[in-house]
Amino acid sequence: MRLTPVLLYLAIGAIYVNLGLLPKESGDFIRGFSDIGIILIMFALGFEENTSTFLKSIRRSWGIALFGAVAPFVAAYAAIFAFWPDHNVAMLSGLAMTATAVSLTLVSLKSENLQKTPAATGIMTSAVLDDIGSLALVAILVPIASGATAPTPDAILWTIAKAVIFFGLVSILGAWILPHELPGQIISRAKFLSGWGARNLFVFDDGRHAVLAALTIALLLGIAAHAFGFHPAVGAYMAGLVMRTDYFHLIPDQSEAAYENVKKIVDNVAFSWIGPVFFVSLGAKIVFDLDLFVSVIPQTATLVAALLIAQILSAALAARYTGDFPWPDSVMIGFGMLGRAELAFVVLDIAYIQTRIISEDVFYTLMVTAFCLNVAVPVLIAWWKPYYNGEKTMGFLAPPRSRPPAS
User: Fold this and answer.
1) H helices of 182-250, where?
2) What is the C-alpha separation between 116 and 109, in angstroms, rounded?
3) CA nearest 100: which of 365, 376, 302, 399?
4) 3-state SS class at 128
5) Residue 248 has what DSSP assignment?
6) pLDDT for res 94
7) Residues 348, 331: Cα–Cα separation, whole Å
8) SS3 240
9) Burial 374-389, CB ≥16 within 10 A → b, else e
10) 21-44: burial string, b at 16+ Cβ within 10 Å, e else
């Protein structure tokens, strides 16, 4: 069917759990194993990205992250409040439907060989910024919705400060700790530091332990992200992002080959061995109850339609007019921002399992909506690929000139 394997993994999880071939509640081992899968996937995706491209993309992607988060929040809030007039329920539902599943989108782009395109970089940067903002909102809004003491200004500032500190530490790691050639005249004179660069670590024993060294850095940054209140996958992604090809330089003119060897092994682990467990587990969150399913069809259809329109339009228009992306890229970014996964299910777990703020029918509506949005991502990306590559045109969305297929 020429669709991404992610769609198969999600479908398998949903089908198997409803046939009784998978348990409704995964055991600790599977939950931990799927967490490892998403961490490896995020590291592999970050490992492919160019650091300077990411930093430059932030200037183009701030509008996508902002408007691409505000619009679905408002749409979900309004749709849920129309059926269940409770501000706390609507607020948490809007929050659950805000954060973009960057991993799902980038894996879908990878299956179409579009993972290194400008649109992919815009989606990735916007989704990371989106998730950072959503994590801050979780810390602020959940206590309010649950009836706990409202957070003080100090607590809100500390949440923001933790994000700034974490990404500042990652920047220091990428700028002054990992590089073999230290930047700046003053720092470069510290010759005793030159033996501690990442290259010496990766080429130890002729590079036989380069994969282990790379995964160790991903592990350490994942632990650091968790300590700061983020998902470990955020840290793993940043670890991959700050690693450069020249760190794997073994002998002259062979750094690219060494890098590609490590990348091949990391990709195999992330996308063929362990990573799929995460997506199967994600699909297994959908347990069908016929009576409940029929009863929430109007609510689910309304919410799906509202989010499809709000997310695609807001992200695409922001990409076009604040990021100056061409229309084919802007539409691809709009489609790529539809996915809902990790943070959405964290919020749903808090709202339904831990605090019981939302009812079972609201929970089911949000779960089915998230599943529909996740299915829409690979389908729409595959459908739009010919238009994105310039093989087909669609009126004013046509690129200014023919675009060669992504390499």
Assistant:
1) 185-188, 198-202, 210-227, 232-241
2) 9
3) 376
4) helix
5) G
6) 92
7) 29
8) helix
9) bbbbbebbbebbebbb
10) ebeeebeeebeeebbbbbbbbbbb
Cα 118–chain centre separation: 16
d(CA 76, CA 93): 7
Length of the chain: 407
What architecture is the 5-397 domain classified under in CATH? Answer: Up-down Bundle (1.20)
Exposed/middle/buried for residue 272 (C-beta within 10 Å: 0-12, 13-18, 19+): exposed
Convert the pLDDT of each residue in 276-315 to its tens digit: 888 888 778 778 888 888 899 999 999 999 999 999 999 9
pLDDT computed for residue 315 by the predictor = 93
| DSSP H or E segment with residue 314 | helix 297-321
Task: Count CB-CB contacts under 10 A for residue 126.
Answer: 31
Count of Cβ atoms closer than 10 Å to residue 313 Cβ: 14
Q: Using an 8 Å Cβ cutoff, are 17 and 284 in contact?
A: yes
Chain segment 154-190, per-residue pLDDT in tens: 766 776 787 778 878 887 887 777 776 655 544 454 5
Average pLDDT rounded to a whole number, residues 197-215: 77
**pTM for the whole thing?**
0.70
Query: Cβ-count burial of 299 within 10 angstroms (0-12 exposed, 13-18 middle, 19+ buried)?
Result: buried
Residue 68: closest CA among 330, 350, 370, 282: 330
DSSP of 110-135: HHTT-TTSHHHHHHHHHHHHHHHHHH
Q: Which two tokens stand for residue 229?
A: 């209140």
**Residues 6 or more apart in contact with residue 123 via CB below 8 angstroms:** 100, 102, 105, 106, 109, 332, 333, 336, 337
Within 235-368, strands assigned E span none
Say which residues have a Cβ less than 8 Å from residue 311's Cβ, sequence separation at least 6.
68, 71, 72, 75, 334, 337, 338
By the 10 Å C-beta count (0-12 exposed, 13-18 middle, 19+ buried), 220 is classed as: middle
Beta carbons within 8 Å of 68's beta carbon, 6+ residues apart: 100, 126, 130, 311, 314, 315, 318, 337
For the chain, the average pLDDT equals 80
